[in-house]
Amino acid sequence: LAHVDHPDGYWIELIEHGVNKVENKTDLSSYKLNHTMIRVKDPKASLKFYREVLGFKLFHTKVFEDAKFTLYFLGYESPDFKEDSLDVSTQATKQSVLELTHNWGTENDDSFPGYHDGNSTENGAVAGYGHFGIACDNAEKLCREIESEFPEVEWALKYGEGPAKIIAFVKDPDGYQVEIFSTDSFKDWTDASLTKDAYIIELDEESDGDEIQQALYELTNQRTVPNVFIAGEHIGGNSDLQALNSQDKLEAKIKAAL
């Protein structure tokens, strides 16, 4: 394996899944977002949260005796999945795996301040890492069940609150945020027809995105649109709209759609 630096300093681990491997060649279309790693202070608390609160299954545990740390790999699987039984090769072919890294002793060290959760700005810290998200069949029901059955769980944003109202952000024991949304949460955002439910925003030639965000906020209480469609064509997000506008192509697309 190898680790490559993202422009913002985040590490990206490169591993081999071995599927349809051809010597001295690589196929970009076969790549997978295999896992995300976060460090945790107390593995018992973290495993309880992800397994009991969010329904993850424990795929595999890897203990490094000499280096004194343990890796726990979790994700979603069928109800009859036998936990802690997945071999490493099969795990490398999966997507959306969560890796918890526990450095031994942190759970009993009162002087250990804990890991930065990526969102705190206390003591001059700069927010960086944000969250990862899980999609479920009914986000509201899941959130209400968590509130009822696990009242000790902390929330960054409860379901029904905030501008969007259809998503929630729950905090794990280390303060990392997990977004919860329904698989159909955003259907109204992408299925809207331009002539019925969409808004047309007039842009300045020098627009840097602030005008778009302010107009969107006034209309929808949101400052960004993750996906924009014009007459069924996927345009992208805010930056893509700005690019089209700067190339004098946006107005023509809107007029054609009308």
TrEMBL record:
<dbReference type="InterPro" id="IPR002109">
    <property type="entry name" value="Glutaredoxin"/>
</dbReference>
<feature type="binding site">
    <location>
        <position position="99"/>
    </location>
    <ligand>
        <name>Zn(2+)</name>
    </ligand>
</feature>
<comment type="pathway">
    <text>Secondary metabolite metabolism; methylglyoxal degradation; (R)-lactate from methylglyoxal: step 1/2.</text>
</comment>
<dbReference type="InterPro" id="IPR014025">
    <property type="entry name" value="Glutaredoxin_subgr"/>
</dbReference>
<comment type="similarity">
    <text>Belongs to the glyoxalase I family.</text>
</comment>
<feature type="active site" description="Proton donor/acceptor">
    <location>
        <position position="179"/>
    </location>
</feature>
<protein>
    <recommendedName>
        <fullName>lactoylglutathione lyase</fullName>
        <ecNumber>4.4.1.5</ecNumber>
    </recommendedName>
</protein>
<dbReference type="InterPro" id="IPR004360">
    <property type="entry name" value="Glyas_Fos-R_dOase_dom"/>
</dbReference>
<dbReference type="GO" id="GO:0016491">
    <property type="term" value="F:oxidoreductase activity"/>
</dbReference>
<dbReference type="InterPro" id="IPR018146">
    <property type="entry name" value="Glyoxalase_1_CS"/>
</dbReference>
<feature type="domain" description="VOC">
    <location>
        <begin position="32"/>
        <end position="183"/>
    </location>
</feature>
<feature type="binding site">
    <location>
        <position position="179"/>
    </location>
    <ligand>
        <name>Zn(2+)</name>
    </ligand>
</feature>
<keyword id="KW-0479">Metal-binding</keyword>
<dbReference type="Pfam" id="PF00462">
    <property type="entry name" value="Glutaredoxin"/>
</dbReference>
<dbReference type="Pfam" id="PF00903">
    <property type="entry name" value="Glyoxalase"/>
</dbReference>
<dbReference type="InterPro" id="IPR037523">
    <property type="entry name" value="VOC_core"/>
</dbReference>
<dbReference type="GO" id="GO:0046872">
    <property type="term" value="F:metal ion binding"/>
</dbReference>
<dbReference type="InterPro" id="IPR036249">
    <property type="entry name" value="Thioredoxin-like_sf"/>
</dbReference>
<dbReference type="GO" id="GO:0004462">
    <property type="term" value="F:lactoylglutathione lyase activity"/>
</dbReference>
<feature type="binding site">
    <location>
        <position position="131"/>
    </location>
    <ligand>
        <name>Zn(2+)</name>
    </ligand>
</feature>
<dbReference type="InterPro" id="IPR029068">
    <property type="entry name" value="Glyas_Bleomycin-R_OHBP_Dase"/>
</dbReference>
<keyword id="KW-0456">Lyase</keyword>
<keyword id="KW-0862">Zinc</keyword>
<dbReference type="InterPro" id="IPR004361">
    <property type="entry name" value="Glyoxalase_1"/>
</dbReference>
